[in-house]
Amino acid sequence: MQIPTGKLIAIGGAEDKGTEVEKGELHKNNLNFFELGILRRIVEEAGGIKKRIEVITTASMIPFQVGENYLNAFGKIGCVNVDLMHIRNRADAVNKEYIERVKNCKTVMFSGGNQLRLSTIFGGTQLLQILLERYHKEESFVVAGTSAGAMAMSNTMIYEGNAARAHLKGEVKITTGLGFIDDVIIDSHFEKRGRFIRLAQAVATNPSCVGIGLGEDTGMLITDGNKMEAIGSGCVTIIDGQDIRFSNIADIPEGNPFSIDNLKVHICEKGNGYLVTEKQFLPEASEGAVTKKQVHVE
Amino acid sequence: MQIPTGKLIAIGGAEDKGTEVEKGELHKNNLNFFELGILRRIVEEAGGIKKRIEVITTASMIPFQVGENYLNAFGKIGCVNVDLMHIRNRADAVNKEYIERVKNCKTVMFSGGNQLRLSTIFGGTQLLQILLERYHKEESFVVAGTSAGAMAMSNTMIYEGNAARAHLKGEVKITTGLGFIDDVIIDSHFEKRGRFIRLAQAVATNPSCVGIGLGEDTGMLITDGNKMEAIGSGCVTIIDGQDIRFSNIADIPEGNPFSIDNLKVHICEKGNGYLVTEKQFLPEASEGAVTKKQVHVE
Predict the structure, then answer these.
(1) In terms of CA atoms, which chain A residue is nearest residue B252?
(2) How many percent of chain B have pLDDT more than 70?
(3) What distance in Å separates the CA atoms of residue A77 and residue B288, rounded to the nearest whole number?
(4) What is the C-alpha to C-alpha distance for residues B245 and A16, in angstroms, rounded to an integer?
């Protein structure tokens, strides 16, 4: 299996801001919709403030305001080469100008909003294909996303699921994401919105996927398509279903509460790491340990 | 170690009702603050609708309304022998009438509210001592509690902890509860209020305690001081820290995010069970498996 050389940076969204802004009213402080520390890390991983960043506002229903906020935030840390791609539908997604631009940037950043807009608008497009190829082949090509933009990164994507009803089979709705990474399911706003049971249900339906629950102001930098490093001020909750001994979820009717015996859970803060393939928590992400690269390529 | 012969029934509270009512405004439908199915089970475990029930409203700041709701709810299922004990302070707790009454009932039910009121008012009192003795020695003596009343049952009790900041060391405040059961930490309103990280922090600080996260309209019936059976419509999340391989919580300063490698988590729905001492999930609570009784008494 090919090891991607690019980097993914999935961010959980912001406390009391971020996607709430979708509901109509623009939050006054939305400029700081996530901490500048995380933005700085994105810029650093892509090679510095001069490298081209394209912000894709497709997930949002208020793309102009959201886009403006990204320009301001990147501007604050000195980025001078940032632009917005207001792709609103599949017709926009085949626009030649946009295709050229995704060929020439060093970073794409998917904004928050509705992740189902990302999968429905980009699924099967040449634009997505270019991003996937660049991510797989180019060192220091960065695909970043916040909230919906983070959730859409994985091949398995939650697009709906009320946290308070997430203990009921079928309440958590899943479809195919943009496919930058397999074997994980990424959830966002994890602490504030109480999404543990929701992500556990997604993991229970196929334990080949590890659940990655991103807190607010918190993210995971993913390299080699496998090695994760927690960044930001909060925590990341990892749910590993590999050792589930019992679950009734296949056998109960839709709408009934499900049960699971033996999930493994890890809580990562800044600097901790996790290896997806090896299902291994790393106290220090910087300590190499075994990576997919070393395992598969010798 | 003595095996208690009584029963504990810890209930997680109600969806959008229950302790929210503490904030001042009485919820219109507060009557149904938890499902009658759970109340029926309490009554059944205590020996039927004629047995004496004392509702202790101490945790609540609106004891008269809350008490009225309990009378109505128990009345709905045919209980005719229910009364309220509005113990407001430690002076009330030594009132001879109340002491007589806790000697003569078959069930006590602690209402929701603030669990710190329960520990501060009942801690070290004769009244609590009588309840503990009866619980330990009398078969079918039932101690029930909802929300704060459930959280106060364990020896280790969370009394405060904002869910959104629960990833920070020291945000989760713990003290000694009423001590009906050791080796567990009970949390309530678990799903709706997103308390996974909060309970995980409590478990991380001493993994000898198993975290019991009770969802809304959901409870655990505990027999032999060890065997749990999930009841109600939601789910119970169990957090077992016994196999934690790494945690930084002892070493970081207060206010910093903590990390944990390898929590074991189980999600129980109605009918599932859990053995605290053996740290064992039971797909069918009714299937005896090993109990503390069998282990310790032969």
Answers:
(1) A269
(2) 89
(3) 62
(4) 33
B216 touches chain A (CB under 8 A): yes
Residue A275 at interface with chain B, using a CB cutoff of 8 Å: no
Q: What tokens does B199 get?
A: 């309970």
What pLDDT was estimated at residue B75?
93
Average pLDDT of chain B to the nearest whole number: 89
- Residue B54: phi and psi, rounded to 5, are -110, 125
Residue A255 — φ and ψ, nearest 5°?
Answer: 90, -5
pLDDT at B128: 96
For residue B123, CA distances in Å to A63, A205, B62, B126 come to 57, 45, 21, 9
When CB atoms are compared, the residue of B263, B264, B269 closest to A257 is B269
The C-alpha atoms of residue A258 and residue A274 are separated, in whole angstroms, by 27
> Region B179-203: what's the mean pLDDT?
93
The C-alpha atoms of residue A180 and residue A5 are separated, in whole angstroms, by 12
Give the type of residue at B225: G
| Encoded amino acid at A192, one letter | K
Q: For residues A20 and A189, is the Cβ–Cβ distance under 8 A?
A: no
The lowest-confidence range among A220-224, B199-203, B267-271, B292-296 is B292-296
Coil/strand/helix, residue B292 = helix
Residue B164, chain A, CB below 8 Å: the answer is yes
Outline where B236-291 has alpha helix (H). none
Residue with tokens 């809580």: A267
The residue-averaged pLDDT of A70-91 equals 94
Between A23 and A52, where is the model more confident?
Answer: A52
pLDDT over 70 (residue B279): yes
Give the least confident one: A16-25, A146-155, A255-264, B26-35. A16-25
Residues found in chain A:
298
pLDDT digits (tens, 9 = 90+) for A116-169: 999 999 999 999 999 999 999 999 899 999 999 999 999 999 999 998 899 999
Do A259 and B239 make contact, defined as CB atoms within 8 angstroms?
no
* B269 Cβ under 8 Å from any chain A Cβ: yes
Work out the burial of residue A255: count CB atoms within 10 Å of its CB; fewer than 13 is exposed, 13-18 middle, 19 or more buried. exposed
Find residue A280's DSSP bridge partners. A275
Does the predicted model carry a pTM greater than 0.80?
Answer: yes
In sequence order, the 6+-apart residues with CB closer than 8 A to the CB of A251 are: none
What's the angle, vertex CA B117, arms to CA B116 and CA B121, rounded to 5? Answer: 120
**DSSP assignment of chain A, as one string?**
-PPP-SEEEEE---TT-GGGGGGSPPPTTGGGSS-HHHHHHHHHHHTSTTS-EEEE-TT-SSHHHHHHHHHHHHHHTT---EEEE---SHHHHT-HHHHHHHHH-SEEEE-SS-HHHHHHHHTT-HHHHHHHHHHHH-TT-EEEEETHHHHTTEEEEEEE--GGGTTBTT-SEEEE---SEEEEEEE-STTTTT-HHHHHHHHHH-TTSEEEEEPTTEEEEEETTTEEEEEESSEEEEEE-TT--EE-TTTSPTTSBP-EEEEEEEEEETT-EEETTTTEEESSTTS----HHHHH--
Q: What is the pLDDT of residues B137-170, one digit of tens each?
A: 999 899 999 999 999 999 999 999 998 899 999 9
Q: B246 vs A281: CB contact, 8 Å cut-off?
A: yes
